[in-house]
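Q: What would this complex look like in 3D?
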Amino acid sequence: MALMREIEWEPCLLEPRRDEALDRRARATLGRRAGALGYFAGLPWLANVAMDFQSCLMTRVHLDHDLADLVSLAVSQENSCRYCFAVTRMFLILLGYPPRRIAQLEQQLVTSEFSDRERAALDFARRLSRSNPLLEPSAREPLARAGFAEPAIRELTGLVGVNVFYNRLSTLPALPPETMEALPERWRTRLLRPLLGRVMRRYRFHGVPVPLTAAQRQGPFAGVVAGFDGLQIGAMLHAALEAAWASPVLPARTKALMFAVVARALGCTRTEAEARRLARVAGVGDGDAEQALAHLDSPGLDALERLVLPFARETVWYQPAAIQRRARELRETIGVERFLEVVGIAALANAVCRLGFVAVER
Amino acid sequence: MNVPLTLLAGTTTALGVLAVSCWRLRVQARVLRRRLEQSAQDLQQLQMAFSRFAPDEVIERVIADGVEARGEKREVTVLFADLVGFTALGETLDPSVLVRVLNGYFARMSTAISLHRGHVSKFIGDGILALFGALAPNPWQADDAVHAGLAMVAALEDYNRELAAEGLPTLALGVGIHRGAVVAGLVGSRDLMEFTVVGATVNLAARVQSLTRDHDGRILVTAAVSAALDPRFRLRPLGEVGVKGVREPVRVVAVDGFALP
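A: Here is my prediction, written as C-alpha cells for the whole assembly.
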C-alpha cells in the first residue's frame, strides 16, 4: 500500500451530506447506508448512478467475484485513484484475501502467483483503462486464449468501464482516502474481520442474463449500451446516460461537447461521432463543433463551455493532485452543483469511451 | 534403562536441532521475502519514474521482453529551443556561475513545457528538444507546443529580471517548432539508451530554430504547425525560406502572441 499512499492527493473538494431519500434507496439497493455517496447528494442523478453502478460491481454473471475484485484494484491503481484503491483493498482484506497477493498486484510483479487467466484479465483491464492507445479488437485474443468466452469479455469490459467511472468520480473531487487506507490495520477491524467478511459475502450476487428492452436500445450512445445486452450494466448505463442528459444543471450541448472532447483525446471516433450528433441535436453547428474540438474553443461557445471543455480534456490522463487543483479552481468559478455535473459527465464520458470496446455497430 | 534414556536424549537433541533449523529457515525466508518486496517496490518506483520519459507501453514491453530495437511511426510536434549567443557568454562567465545560470534556465523551461503537456526529450548543450504527442496521442499537440513556446519566452523574461538584479548577463531564446511523422523508440547503445524520436521532422525543427538568429521572431513555426493552430494565435508569415539540408524552401511563420478572449 505504500506506493499508492505516496500519491499526492489534495484536500476534499466536497462536503458529504446526509440525505434520507438517498439512504433509503441505498438500504434497498446495497443493503447499507449511502456512506460516501453522500458527497454527491447535491446532484441526485449522479448519486443514484453511482449507487446503481456500485450494485453492478456486486453482481457477476460470467466472471467470478474474486477476479472482478482484483480487476477493480488493478484499474484503480492504473488510474492512480487512491480512494478507490483503498476501498477495494479494504473489501478484499475483509473478505479474507491474502495481503501478500494484494501487495503483489500493487507492485505489478511479473513473477507473482497469478494464474494465466488472472494475468490475462488484469493485463487487459490495465490496457483498456489506460487506453493509450485505444485497444484494437485484437486485444480479445489473449483473453480468448486464456479461456474467456465473448460474454465474459463483455462483462470484463463493463467492469473496467464502471471502475474508470468511479476513479474519475473519486479523484476529481479528491474524496479522502485516509480513513479507508487505515481501516484494515485497526485492531477492531482485524478482530471483526471474519464476521464482516461473512456479512459482505452475502452482498455478492450471482446475476442472470437480462436482455435490454426496446426502450433501452434507444437514446444517447445506444451502440455502446447495446454491447452490454444481457448484462446488468447495459440497463444501468442506459439509465445513467438518460438521467445525465435529462439533468437541467448543464445544457445538453455542453454535455455533448464534453463527451466529444474526451472521445477526441482518446481517439475514439465512434463516441465522438455520437457526441457530435447529440451536439447537433442540441443546436451546435458543425463548424462551431469542429473548431471547439480542434482548439477546445470556438466563438460559438459560451463562457461555461470555455472553462469545461479544456477541463474535460484533462480528465483523460492526469496526475491526481494537478487535476484536483484545476478542479478546485473550476468549482470556485462555476459553483458546486455545476461542478458536480461536470465531474459526473467527465466520468461517464471516460467510461463510455472504454466501454465502446464492445459497442455494437448501428 | 540406559537404552531408552539414550534414545530419549538423542530424540530430544534431534528435535532441538530440527527446531533450530526450522527457525533459521523461517528467519531466512522472512528476510528473503522482505528483500523481494523491497526489490519489487524499487522496481515499481523505477517504472513510475520511467513513465516520465517513455510511454507506459514501451516500459511494459521493456520489462516483459527486454530492451529491443523496435521503433514506431508517430505524428508528433517537435519544439527545439536554443539560447542565442550563449557560447560566447560561456567563455566570459565563471564555470560555477555558468552552470547555475544554465540550470536555472533549464528548470524554468522544463516547467513551461510540462505545463503544456510536452516532455523534454533531451538537453543538447544549451539547447532543448521537447516533444508533444510522443508519450500519449494528443490531437491538440500543435496548440500545446506553441503555448509552451510562449510560456518559455515569458518565463525567460522573468528569469532575465532575476539575472539582471544579480548583475549577470541576460539570456535570449529562439524557438523552432515543426510537426510531422517521426520514428519513436529506444535508441542508443547497450550502455546508454533512451526513448527518443528520429527523423527529418526533428532536424527541420532545429533548422527552423536557427532561423530565429536572422529573422524577426523568437518563435518560428512551419506551415505544418501554423495550419493546425488556434486562430487566436497572432501569426506573422515570413514567407518561404531556404533551409540547410532541405531541398524545397520552407514556409515559416512567426508567432507573436495569443489573444485571450
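A: To summarize the key features: The first strand of chain B starts at residue 71 and ends at 83. Strands of chain B lie at 71-83, 119-124, 127-132, 173-188, 193-198, 219-222, 233-241, 250-258.
Q: Very helpful, thank you.
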